[in-house]
Amino acid sequence: MISNFKVLLMLLLAGPIVFGQAKSDEWHLVANSRENYFGVAMANGQIGIVTDDTPLKTKEIILNGVYDGSPENGISRIVRGIEFLNLHLSINGQEIKSDNITNWSQVISMKEGMSTTSFSFNKSASINYTILANRAVPYSAMAIVEITPLADIEIVANNYMIVPSELKEAKSQFRVLKDNQYMMPVFGTTAKTLTGKYTISASTTFLFDGQNEALKQTGSEVGFTKKLMKGQKYRFAIAGGICTSKDITDPLNESERQPIYALQQGIDNLVNRHKQAWAELWNTGDIQIEGDLDAQQRVRFALYNLYSYIRPETRQSIAPMGLSSQGYNGHIFWDSELWMVPTLLVLQPDMAKSCLDYRSDRLNKAKQKATIYGYKGAMFPWESDDTGEEATPTWALTGIFEQHITADVSIAFWNYYALTQDKAWLKSEYKVLKETADFWVSRVVKNDDESFSILNVVGADEYAQHVDDNAFTNASAKEALKNTIKAATILNEPIDPKWIAVSEKLVIHTKNGITQNYKGYDGQTIKQADVNLLAYPLHIITDKAQIEKDLDYYTEKIDKKDGPAMASGVLSVLYARMGNSDKAYAYFVKSYLPNSRPPFGVFSESANSNNPYFATGAGAMLQAVIYGFGGVEQTDFGLKYNKGILPKKWKSLKIIGIGIDNKTITIE
């Protein structure tokens, strides 16, 4: 049997997998092949616009925090929006289609949050089509078209909108508004979500360099006709926005204000504001790797996606697939607190805080869930939507029994305090820690030897159902209780003696010197890291010899075929902290390479799935860089900066904008 580590070394020796890319650099991902295409979300934390390989078209638009019932089973699902940036373009009477273009290429600019598709048509023109979700103006987006005529041509350009099948009662209108002598053409579509819960409205207009063209409605499209001279570049844009009644009382009129605002701003001003907003993010949170371009691209791409999926102060969190798809119904899992928040906490604390605000706002629903199942305190749902109620499909046992999520939430809250040392914030949010602590003391059972157990759970290893004393569940509960006691001490709040008793005597089983995955575990294949999480990100197992034993044992137990990406990220952190740079690097590469999909290397959840973009995996991979190679460590008193360790391939690692004081560290 070939060991897991040898397989990883073989993978590394094979070299990086290149997906039809040419001329990529540290900020740009370039594709020149449309085979097996997986798109990238151009997202601004509010809307995610997924690229397509079809010219002048987007794949879909995802609306953050907007949920309605799915037609399959009624379980809530994140809503797809009206696709409002699509264009039909004809040149000399012939429409541009997917099968009549040549020289196709697509560039993702991670630095600027833009996607540009280029192609040639009939030896008559070369065309660039750029889309962006404006980072500075959260409900708006643009598609910019640049045409270079290779001969005298006539173009007909029409904006059309696609209404997803899950929306209903769609109505479109085109009208020209007038303020004094200023004419404002606006094209829009309004629809209802499946159950009628929300109204969605999208509106657009055309922006031109120089003289405006007269717009005309033709059926369900709006556009213009223009003659272009050979060699004279021509640029125009479709600009507008999408609003919903979840956020805005009157989404129709507000959506119409988006293109009207764009008309006053112009193409360049809107683009420059968007670029500036992205530049500010990179200036306050970036990772630079010297000597390994592939790793640099992957790390930047992971950061780009995490940053794209959330905005500070929105009180929203991040779903496993972010704003790239409806994967996992767009629900919020432990993925946020355990896998994504730790990266955001270091590089973008305000984004991390938004994820915590999301939970704080839904504390009462967590308390209701605890009551429903006969417990005290707060019991957070395994899958959460906008309501904060349990949103897991009823057939999945995780919705009732994967309860470590309650501890994960509490730990994330403590970690934010530990980073910021903000006592005023801790006082305002202490109720989250207290209520989750109360849940755990009501959830445990007392054993004959005065120890405590947690019976009948699904742990982080979801292959094991209805198990007792799952290692990660018990350990995360212990850590959450200990953190609550620390918080109460800081705030001079009363400490329940039961918190102390349970935190000290909640059992974690061992057998033959190995920490048991759960009581009675006997070497079965596990879905993902469970026991190894007790050493990182938890602080329950700190003895180096025990950490090494558990690593040696469980790295061979993790599902090599279908295990999700996160385990490899954690193993990389642990091996880096143990001083083993070869194994740390091998697992770092394994955390993304087998899961990469063409042409840009978007993350899929596992090596054998095709459900990108898996933001959870990106978070784990970034933790390997920050908390592993970078030597950063979370403590109760802020971040600690250890020596760090570099893979042999890397010349240096620089992490920019760490913590609340924007510290920069360099490992050489």
Automatic annotation (TrEMBL):
Signal peptide: 1-22
GO MF, any single term: hydrolase activity, hydrolyzing O-glycosyl compounds
Domain of life per record: Bacteria
GO terms (BP aspect): carbohydrate metabolic process
Pfam families in the cross-refs: Glyco_hydro_65m, Glyco_hydro_65N
InterPro entries named among the record's database cross-references: 6-hairpin_glycosidase_sf (IPR008928), 6hp_glycosidase-like_sf (IPR012341), GH65_N (IPR037018), Glyco_hydro_65_M (IPR005195), Glyco_hydro_65_N (IPR005196)
Ranges of residues in domain Glycoside hydrolase family 65 N-terminal: 41-245
Domain (Glycoside hydrolase family 65 central catalytic): residue spans on this chain: 300-516
Keyword terms, alphabetized: Hydrolase, Signal
Listed name of the protein: Glycoside hydrolase family 65 protein
Protein's organism: Flavobacterium restrictum
